[in-house]
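Sanity check record (used in CI):
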Amino acid sequence: MCLLIANPGVNLREQGRHGEARENLQKALILAEQIGYKEQVCNCLLNLGGCELALENYKAARKYFQDALVLAQQLGLREWICGVYSDLATMAMLEEDREQAEVSFQEAIKHARQLGYVFVLATGFYEYGNMQLRQGRLDEAEALFRGMYTLAPYGAQELLALAYYGIARVMARAVIWERHSDGDDWPYLCWNRSGIEMRKKLENG
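Expected output for Tetratricopeptide repeat protein:
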């Protein structure tokens, strides 16, 4: 019965109808808890966390995700553990909690690597690289974007494009503004040492 209720809730969430999905999933969660269907409880918690995250109710989302993580660890559901850490990292970034985001990203990447989830791992590298780039950690960001490039499955054009985009943004951050030597106030872009080194790396493949 809880499956019949939860599945439409998941579908509603995928359609972006998060308020309706939340109501549906809350009913399914109660039923799953009543009959002791722990995997379905975990599934409902994960999806409810996603609904609250989309609705920007971060406190509620964190509670659902944390409960889902505890249950997924108890049940040994490694795929869901990976997913929860990824969701927690995303939420931490939205809340500008960089320390927690970094911890969660590292956990998500670790589990994705163990599971051989190439797509999840590559996207994790991208999001973690974005965070490093925002913090000005250019070397770390570049390494993650390059790692994403090597991981992107054959034919995954979107991932490859994101990898190139990430590397390009690292290069853009490695430039500095200087004034013309003749004293003109009009600035121009000049590669600093890091920028030159990164450009050479790209040219050499």
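The beta strands are 175-179, 187-191. If this sentence no longer matches the regenerated tokens, the check is flagged for review.
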